[in-house]
From TrEMBL:
InterPro entries: PsdUridine_synth_cat_dom_sf, PsdUridine_synth_RluA-like_CS, PsdUridine_synth_RsuA/RluA, RluA_PseudoU_synthase, S4_RNA-bd, S4_RNA-bd_sf. This is 23S rRNA pseudouridine955/2504/2580 synthase/23S rRNA pseudouridine1911/1915/1917 synthase. The lineage of its organism: Bacteria, Pseudomonadati, Aquificota, Aquificia, Aquificales. Residues 10-73 form the RNA-binding S4 domain. GO terms for biological process: enzyme-directed rRNA pseudouridine synthesis. Belongs to the pseudouridine synthase RluA family. Keywords: Isomerase, RNA-binding.
């Protein structure tokens, strides 16, 4: 993180723009990403008024390895395609989403995302090759016949091997099975299985049991003083394995997605990977 001291009262947007030499619109985009800290607290209001003496910390972005759709296809048959989705790309609908990139690569606009992952969540993402296949797999999802395993790096060392969480999300039934794989340095590595798939379910459930996901800007820690945590640019959640009985091929399919470097590097730094 780049640490800067404020010398005169100004808005956060104006301060970021002047310090980085970028437009105010670009400064607002950076602030909107919730990676800017003021006095050890995340601040995402562009009009936030800074006072003289405030300490602002800005992320230093390293050049990422170029992600290519063709190198991240995990599985393909005549019916579906599985992709290892990177963090910071939308799953579907928008231009530049994984769905859009896959359609362009395959030159096939009929491809549809069967489910979605949050923008910052990485891992296995399934696509159907046409609407008929899409509807069949959607039915599998509704019947809870798709088995999903996630890996999460969370705050605090867990004192349990397995915990079942039944806490509604948006008023709907939500169940998560949380398994502690390892603890170290005040953090835990969890395997999480979710028979239900509510929006932000894992992040909400882990926060409710006081093990918020590292880097979670909504349900995570508000005050952050540890420098290694300030350098985490997204929540550390990865869709690791999806398995199911293939309705067309009539056999069990298991698809596993390797970790991306940011997740792996942070996990190693706290001795959990």
């Amino acid at each position: 993180m780049k640490k800067l001291k404020v010398k005169k009262e100004t808005s956060l947007k104006d301060f970021v723009a002047s310090q980085l030499g970028v437009s105010k619109n670009r400064a607002k985009e950076l602030i909107d990403s919730r990676t800017v800290f003021v006095n050890n607290k995340r601040v995402w209001i562009a009009s936030h008024q800074l006072k003289s003496g405030d300490i602002v910390e800005l992320p230093v972005f390293e050049k990422d390895e170029k992600w290519s759709i063709e190198k991240n296809i995990l599985y393909e048959d005549n019916f579906i395609i599985a992709v290892n989705k990177p963090p910071f790309l939308e799953s579907e609908n928008k231009k530049g989403s994984v769905e859009d990139l896959l359609r362009s690569y395959k030159k096939d606009r009929k491809i549809r995302a069967i489910h979605r992952l949050d923008k910052e969540t990485s891992g296995v993402l399934l696509f159907a090759k046409n609407s008929k296949i899409f509807e069949r797999f959607k039915k599998l999802w509704q019947e809870k016949k798709i088995h999903k395993q996630y890996l999460a790096l969370s705050h605090e060392e867990a004192d349990f091997k397995k915990k079942v969480i039944n806490i509604p999300v948006d008023g709907k039934l939500a169940k998560s099975f949380v398994y502690t794989l390892k603890t170290s340095m005040g953090f835990s590595l969890f395997k999480v299985e979710i028979p239900t798939g509510r929006k932000h379910q894992i992040r909400i459930h882990l926060s409710k049991i006081r093990h918020p996901v590292v880097g979670d800007k909504i349900y995570g820690l508000k005050n952050i003083t540890n420098p290694i945590l300030k350098n985490v640019k997204r929540h550390m959640l990865h869709s690791y394995i999806i398995s199911f009985y293939h309705p067309f091929l009539k056999k069990k399919i298991t698809i596993k997605a390797k970790l991306f470097k940011d997740f792996e590097n942070f996990g190693k730094s706290i001795r959990l990977l």
